[in-house]
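Sequence in, structure out. Go.
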Amino acid sequence: GKVCRLLGLLFVYSHRRMAITGDDVRLDEIIPISYDFSVVEVSSPDELAVVGEHFYYISTVAELELKLPFGSHTRLFLSEVNRQYPKEEPKFDWLTKYQKLSKGARSLRKSIGATTVKMSRMKKSGKRCISLCWFCFSQERVKSEVRDDLIRNSQPILANKSQMLGMPQFGLRDNLIKCELLKNEDAYTYIKNYSFFLGTYNVNGQNPKESLSPWLASTATPPDFYLVGFQELDLSKEAFLFNDTPKEPEWMLAVYKGLHPDAKYALVKLVRLVGIMLLFYVKAEHAAHISEMEAETVGTGVMGRMGNKGAVAIRFQFHNSDICVVNSHLAAHTEEFERRNQDFKDICRRIQFRQDDLTLPPLAIMKHNVVLWLGDLNYRISDLEVDHVKDLIAKKDFETLYNHDQLKRQMDEEVVFVGFTEGEIDFQPTYKYDTGSDQWDTSEKCRVPAWCDRILWRGKNIKQLHYQSHMTLKTSDHKPVSSLLEIGVRTPVVNEESYKRTFEEIVRHIDRMENDCIPSVSLSEREFFFQDVKFMQHQAKTVSVYNDGQVPCQFEFIPKLDEPTYCKPWLTANPAKGFLAQGTSVDIDLEVFVNRSTAPELNSGQQQLEDILVLHLERGKDYFISVTGNYLPSCFGSSLSTLCLLREPIQDMPLETIRELVRSLSNPETDKPQDIPKEIWMMVDHLFRYAKKQEELFQQPGLRGEFEEIRDCLDTGSLDTLPGSNHSVAEALLLFLDALPDPVIPFSFYPQCLDCCSDSSRCRQIISVLPQCHKNVFNYLIAFLQELLKHSAHNRLDVSILASIFAGLLLRSPTKQDLTEKRKVKEFVQHFLVQTPSDRDIDEKLPE
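Output:
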């Protein structure tokens, strides 16, 4: 028989929806990968497209259908497979019977050569699929003019902005060409209008009970794009803790059935964070012109990480326009508008989309031509009583009511959504109704009606055709909202001669420049000092880089000798690399931020705020920028053993005195340490006195400004009582525990705790042998949490919620936890929250 050289093995597993243990996973097949294997695109000419998930056949001894997620990770995986593939060209003879091509697939094949297709169906829920991606192997490597995008423009010329600016193999010369091409894109592109349907719906944890067609199919003609956002998809603890919910496919199917019946749509992307979900559909004929699809999520709940509040976002290229869509759920409650403002700013700062070229800096939301923002923004009506609000609604006096809208006021003051536009609101508030009716909230709280659910946009060539609510849907206590936008997209002109002529002129011009000049820049400043840097308090300074040379230049911060990155972990430069045309400048933000990772070594004096940045010009010289500063030590990021030794605030004690106390710990003449750090006592005592009955304690985030006041109070002793709301003090306590260099249950005990998590007596035995200060803190916190549970009728806390929140803080993993470990850690802590006769009262555990 034929001898095949074995290149590797492919292990095929299947598993349950939430695989927890090895018993939940089954090894189905082991497939040898040899020289005769191939990866082939699967698609169908007459079925509905699902662009967001891609189907491939791997041909070896067996045939295997493989579904890969859409995005840069898959793109990198396929690139690596391509790189490793043997030189000999494989044969695809067996695939000839599958080569019935659709119109889109034909143009794709004509453009790139050896794309082969095969029909595939998704059997569950009747979804029919066509993949519009491609991947093939050839003897030559992928060339610069043909990229391995999973969705790409069928035109081979570089008319797409993402193709011009995203190629990893481009150097300085190529970037010069791309920049000039973009300046002259009017010569080979034009503006064409497309309709975008944007919808947002807070479904209050309900299952879909009615058709969504009155909402999604409300336009006279089918839109080109659908961007549909949900909030509170699932309010269960399981969804909150493990980001898994059976309601995702239920609502996805409801959306699919509710789309406009007069067109076929492709599902491009689904992205979800807990209950925040965004679905992206496009008319099938447009899908081939979408590229550079990426998705990101960010939680803005307690500690700035929990995903009950936050945002999901996608970005993509459509023809020559780059578009970003954000679906967010911001902080609740009328008085919390500042927290909503903070959430918006955090989302804008923290969502960063990776680019094809991994050496390029990530793209922020505001770096896109068009930004579409939808969701339950939770801004309320201020300064009006509920009866007055309802009276204005009955009179349809929305203008008067809108003047009291918090979002309008914050936008007027340019606090949030600067540069965004919202259409005129001529519909009644969409929150809050009795579920299943059009009646305003009749519960005990009797919420004031508000326009919580909003849609805004930012960019040029955008016109709103409608903005409305949909009162006929009664599933939730919110009403869905929709906006139909007409967006002008820069589309390539099919005029290759014009493009070629422009390209050649640019190349000739750059050739002349390259021969004559060396790049050069001037810096506005070369030394920067950051004064009084504090834990989790951002500081930034700006250096302006001006191209004073005769040619465009490319700059980049590069690592110093024997260092892995260009800067210390507490410092970033934004942008870290870029391109400067002749006579132009760029402002680079030097940002300092000390977090839980960098605070311990700064507190102990092992590290200082000192660094040298090296700014390198391609084909030019290096420039050096000095960054220094002074860090104010904090109890946040200090060890429990050190804090127990400090009877004065940490900033009142010189660093050398603190070091001497730590060294003398074994000396019997040294003063006895405190049982627990006074900082923990102050926070817990405050919550014990004022927050035992507080609703959503440890679940609703506080305000950043209040956290900073609490931190300063603990570090300086400036106040006898802590400032800020109960939620801010609660979040400060969580952040304190999260920042401990060694957690309450030290890292060295972690494996033992996992091993005995199902045995209560063994769990208690481990706690009994902890270092004294760690044991004291653990018992003190557990006693406090047990006290909170006595008031569960008011604060609505239970053992499961508290265990879920505190388990990962008290018993922290030294590495990233998997789902099984998270469950074991939670089980360990739960044993202590169930009160036993031996548990002492919290009052007996106060420090001396």
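Check: Confidence is low (pLDDT under 50) at residues 41-62, 97-170, 840-848. The longest helix spans residues 496-516.
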